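Crash report, auto-generated. Payload:
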Amino acid sequence: MKKTWLRDYIIKRLLLAIFIAWAVLTITFVLVRVGPTSPADKYLANLTARGQDAAQVVAAIEARYGVDIPIYEQYINYIVNLGRGDWGWSLSTSMPVMELIKTHWIYSFQLIFLSSILAALIGILIGIYSAVRQYSKTDYIATFFSFIGISIPNFWLGVMLILLFSVKLGLFKTYYDTGIPLFSLANLQQLILPVITLGTGMMAAYTRYTRSAMLDNLRKEFVRTARAKGLPERTVIGKHVFRNAILPLITIIMFDLGSIVFGGAYLTEIIFGIPGLGQISFNAIFADDYAVVVAVTVISAFLILMINLITDITYTYLDPRIRYD
Amino acid sequence: MTNRLKNIKPIAQKVGDVKNSIFITVIALLGITLLLDIFVVEKIFNPLTYLYIVLGILFVRYGIPLLYTSRRLIQYYWQRASRNKLAVGGLAFILFLILLALIGPLFTADPTAVNFEEKNLPPPGFTLEESVYDLKTGQFITNRITGTTQHPLGTDDKGRDLLAMIISGARVSLQVGLFATGIAIALGTLIGVTAAYLGGKMDNVLMRFTDIMMTFPFFLLLVFIVFIFGPNLALIVIVIGLTGWTGTARLIRSETLSLRTREFIMASKALGASDGRIILSHLIPNVISLIIVIATLSIPGVILAEAALSFIGLGDPTVASWGMILKAGQQNLDTTWWVAVAPGIMLFLTVLAFNFLGDGLRDAFDPRSNV
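Recovered output after restart:
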């Protein structure tokens, strides 16, 4: 019984994901086409301003973008090419977009990975402590600081960290050095400020979520039962309360990862000059390089789609009480 | 006993009347300041001004009557929320900021006035050591610049008064925050209530559409659209409004689902009220407290999004917003650090104030909910 509805649910959810992916592609395509200037025009203006021959550039761009064929063929080409892994040609860096993304994704990944893991660990621990000692001094301090954490604009925090630790105290470099190998202590050291910049808001949010989720469960009957049968407090909190609080927490963390963290990482990369996907999209915007901007937007949307899909399916599997009909 | 009751009742009624008239006065003042502000203070006519006029009229036509019909509910919740000192403080700061944005531009210097003789002035009490090439001796000399009280927050590298810039930035941030949230909340409420009330296929279609919208990373979509259509504050506001309604729609939908089967809805249906009338005059007024909470809690995100856009250089270049000042400050961090500090502090305090207020309102509305 359980197996069949779970399978049906997964199939339904997958179909929905495919539909959403198609919608994402279509929306980006439409947006680019209804824009006031065509990609070629913008890029042409950019290149001729730098003193290149206009006619040559036009021919090259039209062939690249395929704007001389009817719009429905362009649309089909766009979808088919993306599906085949051909993400177009980056005019500003003169390499395939796929190549560009392959060399740069790791920088975004290391930043997001480190920040989320640290933020989740510290945030959840503080949240648990805060909930267990509700209304204690520590709880008030934690609540107050989590309020500050969620309110502080992360790009401003980044600028202030640079001002204090790099400009005034000279403890860190003001810019990210790509010459340093990825898996080295020096790289970790230069990631400290960016991770704090991106992680503070997340950590504060997770502290708040954990605290309220723990408090919700601490009031439940089964906690009283667990205490009444003489279980040590450690077991009650760790095994009974936290286990019930963690599921909704994971969904929120996953959802945040998509909606908030990607935007935060975009800004953090720009402030510290980390050459991740945000930075290349940012550079592409000012070079009017459409293919890269579209690719980064679509990839982020797809990643979020996948994260949501996995979260939903895991959630339903782990907690069969939840049924989406 | 009965005598006492007779005495109490008129007093209670009087208290109610006073409260009522205060509420009406506040709402009327709100409307008048809005109109005055649109036609007197707003000097530059750009697309945002037209948006301001349209939204202002819509607010006076629909928002104020809605607030008026729900005045008792709002008063009740505010009484509970006002026990939270942080929420009251947040509201006080927001009111101060609104006042600053409304009448501040009338008293301060022109925020766009460039004056190179007074450039890089630090705030009073601070000094800046600058190495300057001296034309007479042909040597570099160290120039110590001290701040003056004439520019309480100092000036930037073009000699513009930072306080005037901050005040004009407050105007931009509040306009963006309020307008975009207004659009998003109105859309989200309509979609959420309609989906819940009509149910079935309509509900399915609307909610799947919400899912699609939610899949786009909000900030990247904003960047993408600004990249394609060019930076323009009115466009930014509309885009944030048109993309930011998803969370509202979901929350309002789940809230309305429980209202849908209540007796008073059945009764008005039985009396022959149309779907539109039930939605507008029965369902929406009953979720108004939730709408206010969501609105308060979404404004900071919107203000931050616009500031972030301006900060990375995708903001409207014709208006001095906090994000843009911050960006200019970031480029000269080693000398004129105050240009980066001041707008950030304002941004931070504004967001904090809205979060405190929203949190207090939510607790008053439903202490157990996690909006």
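Post-recovery validation: Chain B has a mean pLDDT of 81.
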